[in-house]
Design brief:
single chain, five-stranded mixed β-sheet, about 40% helix
Length: about 120
């Protein structure tokens, strides 16, 4: 199963983490893994292209020789209000896509994607 953690601070999405393998099909043939990866890579590309963020500062991927997805997108805090608003739209759109995959493919017999919402404690 792919575990996705959407971390919020108040109403703002601060990060999305994804780890695991859906197990829907064999590695390389798994449409759920492909969909989750595509959403996350698209969000990272949009943050770089639309918001002007450097992907080296916010995007991490590692799989260390496994078939598991292991991605992290952490929204940079720099930029003007318009840039930050655009980043939130991108992250929320990614979250909605992930929720849609979980809703459409998970069933009572098998869960392929788990969405966990967490909150950063407010200081």
């Amino acid at each position: 199963m792919i575990s996705v953690i959407v971390n919020r601070e108040g109403s703002l999405i601060r990060a999305i983490y994804a780890n695991g393998h859906a197990g829907y099909a064999d590695p390389g043939q798994d449409i759920i893994c492909s969909g989750v990866s595509t959403l996350l890579f698209t969000a990272a590309s949009a943050l770089e292209d639309i918001c002007g963020y450097d992907s080296e500062s916010f995007f991490r991927i590692s799989n260390e020789g496994t078939e598991d997805v292991n991605l992290r997108i952490t929204v940079p805090e720099q930029g003007d209000d318009e840039t930050k608003d655009r980043a939130q739209v991108i992250m929320r759109t990614c979250e909605l896509g992930l929720i849609g995959i979980a809703r459409d493919y998970n069933d009572s017999k098998k869960r392929y994607v788990e969405i966990i919402h967490s909150r950063t404690p407010e200081v």
